[in-house]
Amino acid sequence: MNELRRFSRSVRFALQGIVYTVKTQRNMQIHAAATVIVLAASWWLQISRFEVLLILAAIALVWMMELVNTAIEAVVDLASPDWHEKAKAAKDASAAAALVAALLSVLIGIAVLGPPLYRKLAVLAAGLG
């Protein structure tokens, strides 16, 4: 039972990290909103199970990188409250990693959701015309 309690506590701490990041980081709030929109679009477009997995992997990658970016920024701010070139480099690099993940997720989203969205809109437009 002790193992289960430790695991439960670890999960609780991890969830607190997600909640903190969503509450305090503007980019994570944008990613959260995008997550809801993309998942709704995936359902509406009825994409395949494999495509849903690609979308979920892209979402997870972005969320992971934003969480790591937040952690790095917090540690750097704690260790180096004054401006320092290496502190700036660490924060810039972690922000760049989050940006690369976000850009990759946009490309995956376009590749996966673009064709079925185009087809769905073409059908809707044909029905109106």
What does this structure look like?
It is a single chain. 91% of the residues lie in helices and 0% in strands. It has 129 residues and is mainly alpha-helical. It has one domain: Helix Hairpins. Helix 1 crosses helix 2, helix 2 packs parallel to helix 4 and helix 3 packs antiparallel against helix 4. The N and C termini lie far apart (65 Å). The model has no long low-confidence stretch (mean pLDDT 96).
Supply the key terms.
129 residues; mainly alpha; Helix Hairpins
Structure described in brief:
The protein has 129 residues and is an all-alpha fold. Helix content is 91%, strand content 0%.
Total domain count: 1
Question: What is the share of helical residues?
Answer: over 70%
Tell me, what's the shape?
A: extended
Sequence of secondary-structure elements: HHHH
By secondary-structure content and strand pairing, the structural class works out as mainly alpha
Give the end-to-end Cα distance, rounded to a whole number of Å: 65 Å
Query: What fraction of the residues are assigned to beta strands by DSSP?
Result: under 5%
List the helices and strands and how they pair.
Blueprint: H1 2-24, H2 26-45, H3 49-79, H4 85-128
